[in-house]
């Protein structure tokens, strides 16, 4: 039996370009190569697509011009008759096609995680991993996710949503908030970026104005939420297993000291000299993983039930595609807890949450499930399209 | 000043392929040619893209092989460095590019209206008309749209949502509904198709089972709603005008006698011999438009206010992109009224609703506004992407 060719997409026009590289390389590294053949597809910050053996080596990142000259530039044709997913190699007239079976999407941030990239693969009629267009786009909007949570009786923070004024000068932003009555302090968050980037705390109207000016630089929409005292965060991952049952991972309590660390600091090692070592790996060590979070933190029975049932309920309501990580906020002292946001493609695919779950699903098995789910969703759609087109005759 | 090149996309892998052709041809026909140069792009039922002068002539539809041989097959390159939106002409090595400025999306149904096509143009970095990825995908899900409406306190019908069992045999579907306690009669509707196709009424469990089997052929998810006695429908369109204000159209009460008419019957003329006439047009006559609906139907002040404010509120909450038509159901006798569903790209762009509104926006002006809004959304995004990439340096 021939292997399934998996085009692993990573990089992209996003704040989280670098983290996406790691998630992509991890998938390649752990993938079961008796079943899968990985094809790396690196999307640079200009949106150009590249492939080549050099992409397998983490030491070649960030990709410099010297490496790029060894890579092949590739593209997808949309609108052409393609029987099998095909990457076209640029400026080659023979052997200019790379066939594959499924796209493993390892993007983080708005470019590849918000439904757009998923839509591209829908139109291209190519199987892809992760959440579908609808749920990806909803998850990446804090605003709409919270609306759906409220309807599902999932506790979320109150918020006020503001749209960037057409003229984003100090005076216009000030005018925007003049009539607001707020209980300071408040959090100011970009409504559509799926990361901790651009989150500010404001204790008065002046700080709010300044923060809004900053956030409007990166998002057209902000949400203002009450500041949570004694803040702790809890995360959980959720997906369908191969039997089609919805399962949840272990719960983690991340520590957030690493908010502004560099690529190397955050993901590879605190000792940058290690980057020179030959067998450097994209997979963080167990030690590193455990230093950044507490697994199975102390929670009341109510809190634990809330986290698990909310994650399942929201995932189910959104159609149960992908393997998102769902993040919660809590006031450690009062025990109050709120669903905060959903990451359709969490960093490192949240493998450590599955690895430390009761199911003990390791990273290799996780990638396996993600690919199988992607294939299943694709086959289901294919069948529907056939039926749709053929039944249209009935209505004529 | 050179004209803005508008690639008008229509057709597609959808139930509503034929209607989409008409909407596309209408846009071309009414477009202000002192400002715009239309480029027709026909997407056939296999998903292949075609362009050529023959597409301008309505008499050439449905497109037969003889016509196809005169057309040029075109495709988009995704992942390549493209400074301006470009259609590549297949099998040509010189003069093989058609440049354009914006895509005018005239698709109806899941293929082009549900966020996927919108995502493709996002990734391709091409301006497009209509609702964005998030709102398109939400509007095309009756389920999620209703959840958001409830959170916005917009009245919608109660519903039960069912997912297709993995084995869609009679017995499995029967099992699915065995535990449901329903007040018959009920409506059974596909959750994700934006048209009146596949809607059934069931008066008992047996009819429900049969209907579910039918709907599961075309959608993986159905919603069951209470049957509305003395049913009347009301529709309204909503958009941002060139000044950025949210405006609503006149309200119509459609008559639904034409549910199962043919392409010609429904859109061109009741006299099929007229199809042979040279100056046949894609634009329905005022007479035809008025025969199919009542403008400004008799409504109570409360009903009218509910329709207008609900349309504006939902449109605003979803980010205020595009020019959707929002449909309502009402019990004529009791006066009860519910928001039913949203069409992100309504048939004929709902031009007749704008033409007959207080704003008296004709079809030419409507296309103008749609193109301007598409350009504005694109420019806003472009600016954000630049800022996003450059600011990412701050966080490293």
Q: Architecture of the largest domain in chain A, according to CATH?
A: 3-Layer(aba) Sandwich
Q: How much strand content do the residues of chain A show? A: 15-25%
Q: What's the CATH class label of the largest domain in chain A?
A: Alpha Beta
What is the count of helical runs of chain A? 13
Low-confidence stretches of chain A: 258-266, 268-279, 389-396
Q: How are the strands of the biggest sheet of chain A laid out side by side?
A: 6-5-4-3-2-1-7-8
Oligomerization state: homodimer
CATH topology of the largest domain in chain A: Rossmann fold
Domain count of chain A, please report it: 3
Largest sheet of chain A: 8 strands, mixed
Distance between the termini of chain A: 44 Å
Question: Could you explain the architecture of this structure?
Answer:
The structure is a homodimer of 396-residue chains. Helices cover 33% and strands 23% of the residues of chain A. Chain A is α+β, with helices and mostly antiparallel strands. Chain A folds into three domains: 125 residues, Rossmann fold (3-Layer(aba) Sandwich); 125 residues, ATP-grasp fold, B domain (D-amino Acid Aminotransferase, Chain A, domain 1, 2-Layer Sandwich); 67 residues, 2-Layer Sandwich (Dna Ligase, domain 1), CATH 3.30.1490. In chain A, a hairpin with a 5-residue loop joins β2 and β3. The two termini of chain A are 44 Å apart. At the A-B interface, β4, α4, α5, α6 and α13 of A face β4, α4, α5, α6 and α13 of B. β4 of chain A pairs antiparallel with β4 of chain B.
